Amino acid sequence: MHIVVCMKQVPDSAQIRVHPVTNTIMRQGVPTIINPYDLFAIEEALRLRQKFGGAVTILTMGPPSAEDSLRKALSFGADRAVLLTDRFFAGADTLATTYALATAIRKIGVEFGPPNIVFTGKQTIDGDTAQVGPGVAKRLGLMQLTYVSHIDNVDLEAGTIDVERRSEGGVQKLRSKMPCLISILEGVNEMRIGSLSDALAAARATIIKWSAQDAGVEDITKCGLRGSPTIVKRVFAPKPRAEKAEFIELGDKPGDAFVDELFKRRPKLEAELGQLTRGY
Amino acid sequence: MNDKAKAPAPAGRAAAKKELPEHLKAYKHVWVFIEQERGQAHPVSWELMGAGRILADKLGVNLAAVVVGARNEATQAVVRESFNYGADLAYLVADDVLTDYRNESYTKAMTDLVNAYQPEILLLGATILGRDLAGSVATTLLTGLTADCTELDVDAEGSLAATRPTFGGSLLCTIFTLNYRPQMATVRPRVMPMPERVEKPIGRVIEHPLGMVEDDIVTKVLSFLPDRDSTKSNLAFADVVVAGGLGLGSPENFQLIRQLASAIGAEFGCSRPLVQKGWVSSDRQIGQTGKTIRPKLYIAAGISGAIQHRVGVEGADYIVAINTDKNAPIFDFAHVGIVTDAVRLLPALTEAFSKRLSPHQRDRLAS
Amino acid sequence: MIEERFDAIVVGAGMAGNAAALTLARKGLKVLQLERGEYSGSKNVQGAILYSDMLEKLVPDFREDAPLERHLVEQRFWMMDDNSHTGLHYRSDEFNEERPNRYTIIRAQFDKWFSKKVQEAGAVVLCETTVLELLQDAYGKVIGVRTDRKNGQVGADVVVLAEGVSGLLGTRAGLRKTPDKSNVALAVKEMHFLPQETLEARFNLRGDEGAVIEAVGTISQGMTGMGFIYTNKESISLGIGCLVADFEKTGQTPYGLLEKFKQHPSVAALIAGSEVKEYAAHLIPEGGFKAIPQLYGDGWVVVGDAAQLNNAVHREGSNLAMTSGRIAAEAIFQIKSRREPMTKENLALYKKMLDESFVMKDLKKYRDMPDLLHIQAQNFFLTYPQLVSKAMTNFLRVDGTPKREKEKTTFRSFLAARSLTGLVGDAVRLARAWR
Ligand SMILES: Cc1cc2nc3c(=O)[nH]c(=O)nc-3n(C[C@H](O)[C@H](O)[C@H](O)COP(=O)(O)OP(=O)(O)OC[C@H]3O[C@@H](n4cnc5c(N)ncnc54)[C@H](O)[C@@H]3O)c2cc1C
Ligand SMILES: Cc1cc2nc3c(=O)[nH]c(=O)nc-3n(C[C@H](O)[C@H](O)[C@H](O)COP(=O)(O)OP(=O)(O)OC[C@H]3O[C@@H](n4cnc5c(N)ncnc54)[C@H](O)[C@@H]3O)c2cc1C
Ligand SMILES: Nc1ncnc2c1ncn2[C@@H]1O[C@H](COP(=O)(O)O)[C@@H](O)[C@H]1O
Fold this sequence. Notes:
The structure holds three protein chains of three kinds. By secondary structure, chain A is an alpha/beta fold. Chain A has eight helices and 15 strands. In chain A, the strands form three sheets. A nine-stranded mixed beta sheet of chain A has the order 11-10-9-12-8-1-6-7-13, sandwiched between helices. A two-stranded antiparallel sheet of chain A has the order 2-5. Chain B is built from ten helices and 18 strands. In chain B, the strands form four sheets. A seven-stranded parallel beta sheet of chain B has the order 7-11-6-1-4-5-12, sandwiched between helices. A five-stranded parallel beta sheet of chain B has the order 15-14-16-17-18. Chain B is elongated and about 65 Å long. The N terminus and C terminus of chain B are likely disordered. Chain C is an alpha/beta fold. In chain C, helix 1 runs parallel beside helix 3, helix 9 packs across helix 10 and helix 13 packs antiparallel against helix 14. The radius of gyration of chain C is 23 Å and the shape is globular. Chain C starts with a strand and ends with a helix. The model of chain C has no long low-confidence stretch (mean pLDDT 89). The chains are: A alpha/beta, B alpha/beta, C alpha/beta. Chains in contact: A-B, A-C. At the A-B interface, strand 3, helix 3, helix 4, strand 9 and strand 10 of A face helix 1, helix 4, helix 5, strand 7 and strand 9 of B. The site of adenosine monophosphate (AMP) has 25 residues of chain A, from helix 1, strand 6, helix 3, strand 8 and helix 4. One flavin-adenine dinucleotide sits at the interface of chains B and A.
């Protein structure tokens, strides 16, 4: 079984600051991390490989420095890592990103065998669109299974896969066909710590680096800024909430005092809470 | 919009609006995808009708509701309802193959409709269904999609200006899809105000065939387990949420959160460290890597209010924070702050709420 | 135990560990470096000032790509009381030299860069790998380490302990004693971000120029301690540290001290309107020469903070760490090239070389300083700063009091607080410890 995991290196959003005057992002010193959602995808892929054998390929489109994150992914036990890096990819929106990733996955298929499953995380913490997965699926003609919370069964012979998928009002149990693209829900597994030998192998591994040309991109105008239909016109800091919290003192009967204060400030809540509790 | 926010497009290019290619000029009118699962329209769809109405009026075009679903009475009811929320007309793809949401069939229905009737703006809810569908529709149509918007407007030239948070909420950006049609956007639930519902007669309904039979669809739904039948958390949709953080000190103290939650009919949640420590299951985590909640009331006890937590709760109507540290960042965005030991206060709150919310309870306690 | 063996294992990727691993790898040894943080520097805290000289010995052209913040052109010493400070400023355009001597850095970034150099030199660097214990053979010789990873034991001829101030591994293996509380300071530090223009205006800086303020006085509430303010490109590193034993005695909290330091009018004006990120606390070994433990043994050497190599008086640590790491590596290489084993006798070479370097010479010079400052904390950190402030106010205020009268008042206040013998004694003791 061959599994490709799309993983992105993102700036740690906790560390991002906005310049108070120019409203631009101050990136100095902001560390980068593996998109936390993608960790669940990597782990799920490793578990499937444990069960069915095969190989896990990690794919990232990003700057050369994304090599660090790929190496880390390898230290968990992935078999190979591909870094898609080229100035032509810079400034890509999701449509252009899916073009580049889909092209690279095709090439990965040629080089290392066609994937049975492509995994993505639910979303990234910087782009935060959850669009790249569906886009890649569409471009490659893969079955699209998003928000998957559990992989119930994989039948390699029949080429079918059963999953539980989070949907709006509940959980869908779906049966679909491979090759498919799965975007995995957060929290469905716990990331392993790679063994010392995995870590050693990762530190010494050669990261496969592909330019647009290496990856087999035919139409460069579909990549990066040029290939992006959306245009970011303005980036600005949200208006900070004018007031901070209003502090209230509760005295010696804090419970009652609080309920009084709350319902005084938000009279509607009393009725709403009343309604909610009636069901209980 | 991934990498763009980091390096905003050069002003020259961003500002350049080419004349729209001839074949795209035909794209007119504002569409709202009415999301429904099993005959229930998602409230975000009506919120979008409100937002869509404003855009359509500014552009002087029609507002259309797009309904996709089983060929049954429930779907018809959703169509009728869309007129009560301001639709000038409705597009309908009704087929029993569409009973359950599946990406393949819904993507086909939507892309066929767009190709046939050519809207300039297409809005969807940024729900699980909406995000799943929007991504594949936009890729099929090779157009731009702005996800998870919090504000919509049209500029002087009639282009959609979609504003959305980025970098975990530290920034907002305004995104345009200038030279492609339709301009697509998904919008977070509870961001746009719910418009007033006005009883109106049903208007023009344009039906379009799906052109697909069950055998064409690879993915099969084996079963559906609605949330109300499960013990899984329903945090994302809860009206009231009570959550605890590391400040509670122990898993035992977290029980106080559960007790308060059950006393006021709330869902309970937690900050990430509690999940990592194994005190609470991961579906209860609130924040950037957990659930985004938009309750009417959020009570946070012993949570510092780190940015990753903040982005998950900022949409709450009213935030009450309990923390021993008056400088805790959570007080920067909570509405009401109480500086005290949560472990002592929580039981008092549970008791007071119980008394207040069910008068009979008091009698029972007394006896 | 995994099969592969290394010539040397370096525990820790701070200043000392990176210097050691870089030197060893450059000399062609097979090196494994283990770091518990997510990356080199992710957990490391420092003011931080970098001294070029020691880094040049390792990476001569570091100025080309190292993440340096500002080169220092101005040093200020402040003696503070509750609402004033008496200052000594030294600023010189000569510091705007081609190869400046001192820079501010941000350790998280600097260490990452340093670690890249180590990797380029051929060392295998594993992060997120904590060494849990040293592996010893029946004779007590250190033969490798056990990490927290699965199948996590790995062997080497020699282990370089560069684990920083806590020195847990060495202590656990019985190679050294736990550092004494009165020999360790606890420092807390915050980064305050300001727009570059604002920062430069407040500190009177241009381009990459930087300034440093070091402050003593009532800010440490009578404890042995010091506050500092360093300018980075677009942030200010600000912190304060005091001896751990003093914190215990006085019941003061480090955070409380830092808050008061920030509220001091002289400081508040410098950081007004800044955005605070990154609050960190870290220990500094301050025992000086007398606190240095055994530095080598069968199969091991210890370098940097783990060896208590820190010059508290001059606030130097990273340079001693880099130098000791490099020297240890050079000693190991010499032994290796003689094809001799890493025995205690052979590794004594490290100590010998270190004794000849500025590291031991400087520490020896100040050997009495830590004791003096600690015992006389009340006077040096509370009484004198207050007296000086009073004197300055008295001197500057023009209020019709004859000057001679003013001088008398000042002198009397000094005498009242500290008898004449006390004053003279303090001066002599200080001079002696400095010598
Ligand atoms: C990539 C990434 C993603 C993340 N995603 C999330 C996420 O989705 N959700 C999330 O929550 N976090 C997330 N985090 C973690 C986040 O940065 C914080 O570490 C976390 O939210 C802190 O949790 P806390 O507030 O419970 O704990 P702390 O920060 O330790 O705060 C505890 C608080 O309790 C107060 N307190 C102590 N005792 C009491 C008492 N007796 N009564 C009342 N108050 C008391 C303290 O003053 C303090 O403010 C993420 C981090 C990263 C790096
Ligand atoms: C607030 C403050 C300000 C300072 N200012 C200055 C200054 O301006 N100039 C100056 O020269 N010095 C300064 N110092 C001192 C300087 O920071 C230290 O002397 C120097 O960092 C010591 O380097 P080191 O490599 O010995 O230790 P560290 O830099 O502490 O590195 C130790 C490394 O070992 C790792 N580690 C520890 N245990 C394990 C384990 N079991 N397994 C794996 N890895 C482990 C740690 O994660 C860490 O990366 C300051 C210190 C502080 C706290
Ligand atoms: N540049 C990229 N390289 C590799 N995978 C990516 C990239 N961008 C997004 N992805 C994948 O697509 C998922 C959704 O991303 P997004 O649409 O940005 O929220 C992520 O969790 C990743 O798995």
